[in-house]
Amino acid sequence: MQAVNLLDFDLDGLAAYCEQLGEKRFRATQLFRWIHQKGASDFDQMSDLAKSLRSKLQGAAVIQGLSLISEHVSSDGTIKWLFDVGGGNAVESVYIPEDDRATLCVSSQAGCAVGCRFCSTGHQGFSRNLSTGEIIAQLWFAEHTLRKRFQTSERVISNVVMMGMGEPLQNYNALVPALRTMLDDHGYGLSRRRVTVSTSGVVPMIERLQHDCPVALAVSLHAPNDPLRDMLVPINRKYPIAELLEACSRYLQAAPRDFITFEYCMLDGVNDSDAHARELIALVKGRIPCKFNLIPFNPFPESGLHRSPLARVQAFARILADAGIVTTVRKTRGDDIDAACGQLAGEVQDRTNAQTRMRREPVVVPVSAIQRSARGGRPA
Length: 380
Ligand code: SAH
Ligand code: SF4
Prior knowledge:
Bound molecules: S-adenosyl-L-homocysteine, iron/sulfur cluster
Radius of gyration: 21 Å
Helix content: 25-40%
Distance between the termini: 26 Å
Strand content: 15-25%
Number of domains: 2
Order of helices and strands: EHHHEEEEEEHEHEHEHEHHEHEHEHE
CATH architecture of the largest domain: Alpha-Beta Barrel
């Protein structure tokens, strides 16, 4: 029988599993804390866990992280990890340190089926959903690897954004237990406001998330009208803007923040005119409390698209801000290691591309130098 991976469980799931083994819930809590708070991957490390439980777990269960393929460190401190998820697929996570926080950008799928025009993950196509364990393993690995590296027992990662590869709301069943583990006081203890799900607009799942696990919501809008959005974000043909905005309004009733963040990728000559900005204002003003985050497009060769000039991005931002809409322009981080939004594309599937990238990357640390075996995927 295949061993159960305990990273696949949120605390309720682990309690149910422990119950099957004839163990009480508080044992599951202890186990959960060992795994997520201490980064343990070996039952023998769990000194205060009853020996009888430890021996039941040996053989039946594992704590199995992801296999690390590579680590790239940017000159601005951003770190990109590439993980092997089998079958020729690789996914990426990005650590982004800032003055007052440290954010981990987490992947939810190998590839993505939505196929947005401006996204390299979308261009890659869809391979498969990640499991709960594969989603949470990214945080588990990053948190405990960095604690060791920074020689601290304090929490390192303060924020998680589901903005890596994939559409998280198209992998809903695996996503929710992973989110719950991030929020759980016995897990990572992150506040709901500091965990953000970013979606291209899977309307029915926005509604479910509102009930099951309301965290901060970011919506990738990218266009002020349906014809343009149909072209840029194909899921718009199924869930057009009006339906999406209604779902956003309803979401706010349960959301931990009192606004929705709209992401808007600035594409030269496509969606970045003054008229587009005014159309956006007409769309959202008085209808939905929101903030805009303008993302300078990160080009990749196959897209055929270009980044809006900075002056255009600033003029666009000014029009929104003058209408009273809080607007920020996202800083591009990890540019030199292709870790910026929309540049994440499991390099294993595209080796030619990977090689072109490698030449531009300033620091490439081989796996062997990263204090752990590539196969076990274990931080502790
Ligand atoms: N699938 C989800 C989350 C992952 S994408 C979503 O679409 O929201 C995370 C963010 O990066 C989204 O806002 C997405 O639109 C943006 N993005 C994708 N490709 C990009 C690119 N090439 N340049 C800038 N932003 C991009
Ligand atoms: Fe998928 Fe998001 Fe990329 Fe669109 S932007 S293809 S939804 S990952």
